[in-house]
Amino acid sequence: MNAVDLQALYDRDPRPTFVVDCDARPVIVSFVNKALLNTPSLASSIHFHDAFRDWWDPDSRVAAAQQEKFRHGRLRWIKFPICKRWLVVSLLEEAKPAATETHGMGIASRQIPRTTAPVQPAGDDIFNIKVQSLELREHIKFVREVDWGATPLGPIARWSPEMLHVVTVMMLETRPTALFLGNDNNIIYNVAYAKIAGSRHPQILGLSIIDGWHVPRNKFRTPEVADPVNATIARSQENTYADAPEEEYHFMIERFGYVEEAFFLWSLVPLVGPVKGLYSIVTEVTEHRLLERRVNTLSKIGQLTNGARDIGSFWTSIKYAIKPYEYDIPTAILYSASELDAASSVHSGKSTGRKCTLEWTIGYAKDCAFIPVSLDLEKDEGLGRALVESAKQTTPVLFRKEDGILPAKLFEEVEQRAFGDPCKAFIVFPFKINDESISGFLILGLNTRRPYDLGYQQWIEVFANLLSNSAASVALYEEEFRNRRRIVEQAAMDRAALNAEVAVLTQEAIDVTARLQSMYDVVDKVGVGFFEYNMEGKLINANNAFFEQSGFTHFPSESSPPFSFAERTFPADLEKTMSMWHTLASGEPVKFDMRWKREPRGPEDPDDFLWIQSACFPIKSSNGSVTSIAGCNVNVSVHKRATKAALLRAEAEKRLATFTEISPVAFFQLNNDLNLTYCNDIWFEITGHPRSPEGEGHWQSVVLPEELPQIHRDIDIIFREQKTHQFSFRLKKQWKGPDGVSCPTWILATATPELDEHGKTISMIGALNDVSHLKWAEHLQRVRVDEALESKRQQENFIDMTSHEMRNPLSAMVQCADSISSSLHELGDLVEVPIIEAQSMLQHKIKDLLETSLDAIDTIQACATHQKRIVDDILTLSKLDSKLLVICPITAQPSVLLRDTYKMFKDEANKAGVSLEVRSEESISDLKVDWAIIDPSRVLQILINLITNAIKFTQTQEVRKVEVIMGASLQPEKKPGFDYVPQETKKKDFLEKREWGDGDVFYLHFTVIDTGCGLTAEHKAKLFLRFSQATPKTHVQYGGSGLGLFISREMSELQGGSIGVQSEPTKGSTFSFYIKSRHASPPSSYRPNVLPNHTKAEIIQHTTAPGSDSPFRLTSTLTSLSSTPPPSANQIFHILVVEDNLINQRVLTSQLIKRGHKVLVANHGREALSQLHKTHFSTSPQSDPPFPLSVVLMDVEMPVMDGLTCTRKIREMEREREIVGHVPIIAVSANARHEQIEMAKQAGMDDAISKPFRIPELLEMVGRLTRGEA
């Protein structure tokens, strides 16, 4: 091919020709002449038409490669070799180049790239073949009539074969398909697409997509269709691939003579090759989208109306459910009717119940004249006529404007919703509660751009049925509510009538009881034991024969546990007896044999049991529920001994079989395959399994499915570990509890493996017990515990509130009384001045008035203190009930405690004329009791209660003497002749705790002897009970709350001891108690007193002393405890009083000022913070000179800012250096509970005093705090 003349020869050849280099690997086209290059379609087909290449390729092995000539499209080609290397391929017929094709394809080299785009040769196309479809021929005619020459595509005759091929494929496509060709995306589409184009067909043929699908924005109230499509085309052309698999468009299509809402899925695929454009397939999904929208509407309605419980909320829920769906429901009107009778509203002439009320509208302005608020269905006009017409039909009724029934304005004057079109038709349907009643009507405007076709009609029918059913449900709920209310009212009347009947029946029962008593006497004589138990298992009635048989000596006490008969039941019969009990409780009578336990009566009767035959029956109330169990017992021991001898001779296997059949326990046997091989009849009764022959039972069918995995694991344990195993599970069978609630039956299974002679497990034998009643009881117990805890919480809240509200006024009373008393004493000093002494009568008169007034003040103080003591009693009792009263160990000397006790009561005893003596027994010195670890406050609390009672009951006797004796022992010895109170529950040994040390244990005894009026045996029996006193006259004569000795009992038991009494009428009483303690070494810093004075005062404040209404006793006790002298007269305190109660604030301030102290006041915590800036604690005092604050008296509960919050703020200001130094704060609160006082101290308060208090006590506490002794 180096000869230039040969190449020039082929270039001048008018026939398209190319030369192949056969030696090249791979084979290549080495030369293409100009005639072939001037026909690009032919040039590209050299490589990309498979059949053509297989013919000329020398390496091809197809049969056509052996032929010299080949027909490719309408052209015939020939090939021949030259010098074995070159293969010349030439066209036999001249191919005319297309007018639109140009020279210069950009192929510079003599080799044609294998990546040239494939283009088919010219052949048959849709415009020159015979088309059978008449519709397609008509469509092709429209295409031919388009002036394509006026478009960039040119006339059809000049279209390239590739374009004709693509157009042909598109035309023959059955789906709606279009081509957007050229730079302007000119439109050409098939027959199916023409239907989508609607009224635009055939005008848009040949137009660009912008011109063809452009829709003015204000025509259909939707965006221009061409805009999103054009944007998608631009992205597809830029990226040379489909922009998205499918993109959905919401179009307004004018077809079938009207504008229609439609949804389409468009796919746009760029054409690859010489033909420029996009291939688009369109799928209409209008029905799917409408279905989704309508289903969503129904779902929303169901969701919102489901929660409606009355018809008003039901109407409102409908509005909010349908309002968002404006396309399908552009307008809506709802009228309610009070359960309109369907028959009368349509056919009769009655006017009752034929009024409808407008509930709401959608799509209309408010107060439209053509939509009346009230509608009279009697008037056959407008909306009323349409409602009446719809009530006659079974399906929703369609009304159009041309019908002339509905007002014309109803169609025209609508708000701008959805498409903004006037309504064309309305649907009216009633809410039928049932076949006879109508509760309302709904008028719906139809979609203005969708036909009312079959699918639309079916959706409206489902819509109407859904709302009617919902309305019926709401009406049913309201009716049930009204019925329940009527039932409650009727039940109240029935109870009143029943109470009257009960009174009559009670008298009849008394008469019957008297007649039955004579029958019981006869039954006793013949040895028949009669009994009756309540449903808690407690014996409520029995005759003497029953007590002789059972071994009971008397009726069990009320505090005995349920089913006390189990204690006397022979152990082997207990399970059977309880099973019979459950049968009776279910309402079925039983007859069975059982044994009572008893002592053997000699060789002739060696048995330790007594056989009886018991016939029992349940006693039921009028409603069928079991109220008690009654029956009779007959001694059958002789008969049983004979029967036992016969049974011993029976075969063991028969005995076992008989036992399993009569046993209340279900027995079963499973083989290795877990198949049931044996079970007794009770197994079927317990499990609920249908009776079937042995080996055919499927036990898995009666078990709850979720229990099976765990059961298989339990069975695996038995087979694998070869040991007895117990497990529980639930059955499908329902068990009904005493409360009427049903639940799955609970089964307790006990199973053991059966082994062969080689030790291999061959089966599993077990028993089933119905324990549903136990599970129910456990649940009931949990519920009752929760209820008890809630009741306890409410009780504590009530006690705290009562204590707080009583202590506030009591504080003012005590302080006012102190103020008056102080003033009277000052007045008493003035009486001694000479001017008054000169008038002896006046002086005598004034002294008498002063003495009377002072007595009155003492009485007021005593009564206030007594009232406070009662509050403290309740608080102490609350702590005991809540297990919050604890023992605080202190190293102390019991002898000092005894001496302090004497000092406390010495003045009181003297004033009452009672001789008070205290002494220690020799046992104190024998056991070397000096220092011990005790809680002196609790011991003193008991002593105060006992000594107070002793003085109170002795002061009216001729011989008035009270003696207190202290002793010790190594064992908890109880004095002979004393009635000690037994402990209800065993207390844990508190001495094991670390704070009680490791000294030797001993017991400290205290005895209080008085010469009072004494106690009878009856009085002693209830002496230590809660809220109990010796006699009903005790409270009247001596006062008290009846809690003191009960709390003393609890206090002694809490300290490991007990309390008892020895007394006889008119001979006085002796109370003795002991506590547990340990020896201790003297503390490092010895103090002569057991307790500081302020702690003694606190003990008095929190000590329960029943009958503590003696004025002189309380006053003297408080005086004795306040033995520390008050601050000196020249010691002046500067005090900030923070109190919200204005009365308490004024009284306290007045008392402090009267004693010469300086006072600032604040009504709440925020004012206190402001006042603090006026004191010397502030870094920049707001007063000059600053107030030298000594202490803050802080109330706890206040408005705006409470005392705890204020204290925390002050401590925070100290840490932030906003104030200088430590501000002393004393909590002044009416909350006296220990926990509340601890909360105050945790908040940062230095000390606390509970209301009511006296000013000397307060000032003593202030003095200690300012001296740093707190």
TrEMBL record:
CDD domains: HisKA, PAS, REC_hyHK_CKI1_RcsC-like
Keyword hit for Phosphoprotein: yes
Domain PAC: 725-783
Modified residues (4-aspartylphosphate): 1195
PROSITE patterns: HIS_KIN, PAC, RESPONSE_REGULATORY
SMART domains: HATPase_c, HisKA, PAS, REC
InterPro entries associated with the record: 2C_system_His_kinase, CheY-like_superfamily, HATPase_C_sf, HATPase_dom, His_kinase_dom, HisK_dim/P_dom, HisK_dim/P_sf, PAS
Keyword terms of this UniProt record: Phosphoprotein
Domain Histidine kinase: 801-1079
GO molecular function: phosphorelay sensor kinase activity
Domain Response regulatory: 1134-1266
Origin: domain of life: Eukaryota
Gene3D superfamilies reported for this sequence: 1.10.287.130, 3.40.50.2300, Histidine kinase-like ATPase, C-terminal domain (3.30.565.10), PAS domain (3.30.450.20)
Keyword Phosphoprotein attached: yes
Name of this protein: Histidine kinase
